[in-house]
Amino acid sequence: MEIAAKIVIGLVAVFHIYILWLEMFAWTTKGPKTFRNFDKELFPKTKSLAANQGLYNGFLAAGLIWSFFICDPQWQTNVGLFFLSCVAVAGIYGAFTADKKIFFVQALPALVGIVLLVVGMI
Fold first, then answer.
1. Torsion over CA: 79, 101, 92, 121 (sign)
2. Fewer CB within 10 Å: C terminus or N terminus of the chain?
3. How many Cβ atoms are within 10 Å of 35's Cβ, its own excluded?
4. Model-level pTM?
């Protein structure tokens, strides 16, 4: 379970690094191709807002990656659970407010990671 949990945490972290890149550096070029349900005219106007969101995604990735470097197993689990929970809540909120697909690409992997960490604690 521990290895599976770390793999999922790593994948969630990589996904959030990708989102950081997309929102901070490629919003006006790749953003319209990724978020097709938004008008293309919105992307240049929302560039600074997207960059701010990207920064927050970077913090989520940093927290998940940080959990790999914590030596104490209990604290490693706690930090992993905290950041996965943040990702899950953000994904659930995004699914309700922006696009249902967000649940599957963001919240669901985080929830799987949470389950793996909790099962590993038992």
1. negative
2. C
3. 17
4. 0.92
